[in-house]
Amino acid sequence: MLSLYGLSLKIRKIMNLKLIFYSGVGSVTGANFLLQFDNKRVLVDCGLIQGEKFAMRENREDFGYDPKSIDMLFITHAHLDHIGRIPKLVKEGFKGPIYSTPETMSLAELILEDAVGILDKEARRDSVLPMYEMQDMKDAMALWQTIPYHTPNNFGEFSVYLKDAGHILGSSMIEFSWKNNKNIEKKILFTGDLGNSPSPLLRDTEFPLNANYMIMESVYGNRNHEPKEERIEKLKNVIKSTVERSGSVIIPSFSMERTQVIIYELNKLVESKLIPSIPVYIDSPLASRITEVYKASTNLFNRNIKEEIEKGDDVFDFPRLLFTTSGEMSREIDHSKSSKIIIAGSGMSVGGRVIHHEEVYLEDPKSTILLVGYQTLGTLGRHLIDGEKTVTINNNKIKVKAKIESILGYSSHKDSDNLVDFVSKAEGTLEKVFVVMGEPKASTFLAQRIRDEIGLDAVVPEREIEYELD
Length: 470
Prior knowledge:
By secondary structure, this protein is an alpha/beta fold. The protein has two domains: 4-223 and 412-469, 4-Layer Sandwich (Metallo-beta-lactamase, Chain A); 228-410, Rossmann fold. It contains 14 helices and 22 strands. The strands form four sheets. A seven-stranded mixed sheet has the order 6-5-4-3-2-1-22. The protein has a seven-stranded mixed sheet with strand order 7-8-9-10-11-20-21, with helices on one face. α4 (102-126) runs antiparallel to α8 (285-295) and α13 packs across α14. Residues 1-9 have low confidence and may be disordered.
């Protein structure tokens, strides 16, 4: 294996690098960024734009570039807003390799297969053709190759090095190195989504050392999470108070990472007898399959949880935990009137099985809807967290009588203070920061903090504007 120094000598000098943001600006979803080297056009992420629907109409529009002209695609992690349009890219002519960590590749196949089914249902409901189909997903997976963390990879005009982002299993920061026309090596870092370290499961986010340019997320650019020690206490109290009212707790949760973290936290509460013993349903076949990938990837877990596993604790299992598979099993959950916890997707209540459960329990004043992550504008989850008293589900008006609670500390994104601290770690070399993947007020606030507190040039880029980097 070549050292980074040895590898960098083989990188050909290029003129100024060009950077274009096609989506993922002005919104927390839809990551899609283009790097233009002398002779190579490289994409970073190709995500689904989401809002009040699983997939916004905007996803059907042209990419803004010819997919046939793209030489390769690099993926930071397997969340749908970073991978959800890859099959469309392939369907429209992209033939190059796709690169990510091995874990991201494994998870992406599960996520995209699930997305095909949901997109098909949306298309039939709207009387349009699906954006892509199963064969397009399979064609995309056939192009996929893997790169492990901390391994230099030479692509002629540039090299690539992956660092652990600590966000979800296999998530990476992608560092591109190249030599400019003055023979000076430069580095640009795409953070993807940055983990809310320390995580209950994963290793901490690595430091962004030696980067000259940074493209960073800003989901929580203008707010901070409650302290981590408070979140499990709040989870415990929400469950206990709901059970005391003879109600049920419904947790809309992303199938990947969030569900596994909640299972782990419930495991600790149950084993410590801090909450009553009631049924806990993981009502998501996708979450069940993803949990198996997590169980097979404990080498990426942090030291604390590795020690728990070595002592014999199955951190993803406890008494009365039930994984449902079929639709019939899902519907039977609501037939029982006794208290229960239901964890189901999607995390922002824009599709999946949680919609049915919310339709049942939102009008029950004894029950609680517990929101454990960011809720994008226009989603049902956002309507609930904003305190709306009537919502629409499946064309039915539903009065919100259930208690609505939220725990932002379960987010797998860094908050504002930790994003600023992350940038400060590269202060010695960093020349410019591009703030993306956030609502406009969050991105603008974070960019201003970076300028004021660190003294670095930070901008919120415009969509489809070409930025030249020296």
